[in-house]
Model the fold of this input.
Amino acid sequence: MGNAESNAYQNHLSRFLPEEQSDIDGLFDTLSGSSGSSGAKNAKAAKKTVTLAALQAHTREPLPEAMTARLYHGMKSIDLPGKSAGLSEQIAKEQFVIFMSNLLKGNADEKINIIMRMIAKTGGPLKGKQIQEFTEDLITSVVHVLSYRKELKGWSLENTRDSSSGVKALASELLSELKLPDGTKLVGSQLLETSFDQSVIEDWVYRVPQISVFLSVVIRQGLHVLHSLPDQTNDILNLVPHCKGIKGRGVVSLFDIPAIIYINSHLPAEMQHKWQLLFSSRLHGESFSQLCAHIVNKGPCIVIIRDLDGFIFGGFASHSWEVKPQFQGDNRCFLFSVFPTLAVYTYTGYNDHYMYLNHGQQTMPNGLGMGGQHGYFGLWIDSDYGKGHSKAKPRCTTYNSPQLSAKEDFTLDAMEVWAVGDAPESAGRKGKKSILDVDPQAQALLEMAGKSRQSEGLREPMEEDEGDDDEN
Done:
């Protein structure tokens, strides 16, 4: 190994902690051992290498075959000093380590050459259609590998909407961020037929963090390397929130896995670790009174609705819902659509009509609303349960969202409300900390006595009962 090559390789190696290096070494040894390279007993006679067949054998179950081939072409694209990239069909140790280093630890500039070859083994410029296929493969692989490794934290492919349309919707939303050098965004067939050069795709990877996060998940969980080490960032740890309150209840959520991942990434960081089902029209009945009883004073939550035309949409409420004839919430609230398109619509600054909940009054509208104004909400569920509207033409003033439902006035088919983050203290003790938060010894004593953390009703009783939801 020449000095320049050795130095570059050592620089990449030094990005990893000693335990990470040994993890990567172990994986490479496993892969090269099964590649059947002749003369491997004599290391000097034949350096260990990894073949596509060995990679496929290792990832046959955790990853779709198309993604394994993309990983292989990414590894093969690594230039080694004095050697032409891509000429050898086998992956050298140096290529393997540099691939890991650039994709897991590198910036957009370091990742882009590999990603270009993962999209198309010939490199760029690349058609929008090729970028779309790569993005859909990537999202499909994330859902597949998290399900295979039992890392969906209580969600499953059985208790959520079919992910296939969600994969396409998320890919389409991420691709909508592709911009030509003059800032133009293309849509539809125009985007798919346009050729994009490397600088445009690098800019896209830089601005769309999901691409790097998803690649990291595919490598860590697909190859089963560095998946349990402490350098994982919160965007990986909280990629999927823990799901509470759905296990064993025969409910299939209105959300699909890609939509959960995408909506969760837009929540405040401190709320991304857990979702708990508060209300489901199929469990709790089609009643506005029941809805209010289950969601008032339960902390920040997500409302999701399906209308009779199959459109799925909703909103994030940053504060506990309170029944009162005034608007509430703050600028962290947003509206979203899940189907037929996946998108998030954040506040415009035009007004503060973030969220509204009223019931049983004669002088003010009764129902649940988000954005816009009375009679013209971005999202409205009437207290006469089953009726709603999304009157946002051309756009909702508060969130800049379009009409979310198929028809302006819609009929509700199903509805769910999910509390996000940790449950708040009850409204009656607002502003006071639970003794369990203040005094960890009190908590320990309760736990020793076999008591759950309910502290006179301040904790949501279901919280501990549903604790095993995250065992897939």
